[in-house]
Amino acid sequence: MPQAKSKTAKKKTAKKAAKKKASAKKTAAPKAKKKSSTASKKADTDFTDFTVGDYVVYPMHGVGEISAVQNQNILGKRTLCYILEIENSKMKVMIPVDSAKERGIRPIIQKKDVKKVLDLLKKDEVDTEEDWKIRYQNNQNKIRSGSIYSVAEVCRNLYKRARDKELSLMERRLYELAYSLITSELALARSVSTEEASNLISEVLS
Fold this sequence. Notes:
The chain has helices at 2-44, 114-122, 132-144, 148-164, 169-190, 194-205; strands at residues 55-58, 62-74, 77-86, 92-96, 106-107. By secondary structure, the chain is α+β, with helices and mostly antiparallel strands.
């Protein structure tokens, strides 16, 4: 009988050990899950070319300041986005970080690049295309490119054309847009007011 009792005791001890082992596995599982969640969170905020406070150029809209970089729900999917405040229109734009380059988002030009823009505005060149529809489309494509040098060409060509012949309403608006885009970017690049930048551009064009 004592031996039988000893075997029973061993069985009970083995069962207790098995329960403890299973309990330990259950306790360890949430820790692994927590670690995975942290890694996922880190992946969500992994970094981008621009940060809050940076000024960038958004084609056709102009200079804007990045006020936030945050996850937004787009078509049911969490997407990291730039929240951009456009200076001229005071409009807020949300741009997915992954598609920022594709949409033409770029940094403001440096101060040393301003001279190249002014030299382009000074050039005595005129767009020789006489069909205004083709000319308008070509100029619009240049502005959409987001390149300040292409925008400067549009501004110069339309300004010079307007001296000889009145622009159509659509071309006039395109000229005003090009002028505004250059003014706001040059003001930031040179650290001057938009009024000073505008005066400089007017002086160069005339």
